[in-house]
Structure formats: structure tokens, C-alpha cells
Amino acid sequence: MMNLPPTVKAYFDAANNQDAEALLACFAPGAEVEDENNLYAGRAAIRAWKEESFAKYRPVQEPRSAERNGAVVSVVTTVSGNFPGSPVDLLHEFTLEGDAVTRLNITLA
Predict the structure, then answer these.
(1) Furthest-apart CA pair in the chain: how many Å?
(2) CB atoms inside a 10 Å sphere around CB 49
(3) Is the pLDDT of residue 89 over 70?
(4) Which residues contact 50 (CB under 8 A, 6 or more apart)?
(5) What is the pTM of this model?
(6) What residues pair up with 72 in beta bridges, in sequence order?
(7) What SS3 string covers 76-101?
(8) How confident is the model over 66-76, as pLDDT tens digits?
């Protein structure tokens, strides 16, 4: 895997292992995730979002490129799984504060 900040690498490792606990550890308590025009605020909502995604889609994410601009790390991934149009390229924009993700925005790349 490319040279990603440790927290971002841990997020993708946890996501690909479908480990909601490890994934949740990447986020600050008040973090927000925006995915498919839905906003998930706080760890409980983020956990529910990922557990549903794991069960429904069985996604596998392969980071293709990454760049950092201050606190924001942008990663383009190819995501495959049990969903129409698989695989698809997505842009993950992580906002980091220290070692924690405070915001993650996921859109089509």
C-alpha cells in the first residue's frame, strides 16, 4: 500500500477486514462521515453505517493515489463488492486532527 498516514492506513485495513471496532478507533468522538448524500454524526452513527455497509455490500477498497493538503488527506480508491456498477472509483477525503479522523467525505472520483 502507498505511503498513507497511519490513521488513514488503519481505516482502510479495518474496512477491508470488515472490523467495525478497529475502523471506529480511527475516528474522533464527534466525527462526521458523509457518504451517498447521507451524514453520519458521532461514533454510534458511524458504526451503524459501516456495519450495514459490510453486511450489505462486502466492500473491498484498494487505494490508488493519495495526496495531503494540510489536515486533509485525499485518497482515490477502487471499491468492489456486492453492489450495482462494481467496481467503482471513490474519493475519500479525510480531515485529520492529530491521529484522529474528524470528518470523512466519500464521493465518486
Answers:
(1) 36
(2) 17
(3) yes
(4) 15, 20, 23, 24
(5) 0.95
(6) 69, 95
(7) EEEEECCCCCCCEEEEEEEEEECCEE
(8) 999 999 999 99
Dig out the grid coordinates for 104 from the structure.
Answer: 470523512
Give residue for cell 480508491. Answer: 77
Q: Where are the domains of the chain?
A: 6-108
- Domain 6-108 matching CATH 3.10.450.50: the answer reads yes
The answer to whether the CB of 53 falls within 8 A of the CB of 64 is no
In the predicted model, is pLDDT for residue 49 greater than 80?
Answer: yes
Q: What does the block give as the cell for 84?
A: 450495482
Name every residue whose Cβ is closer than 8 Å to that of residue 109 and which is 6 or more positions away in sequence: 76, 77, 89, 90, 91
Q: Which residue has the cell 488503519?
A: 10
In this structure, what C-alpha cell is assigned to residue 33? 462521515
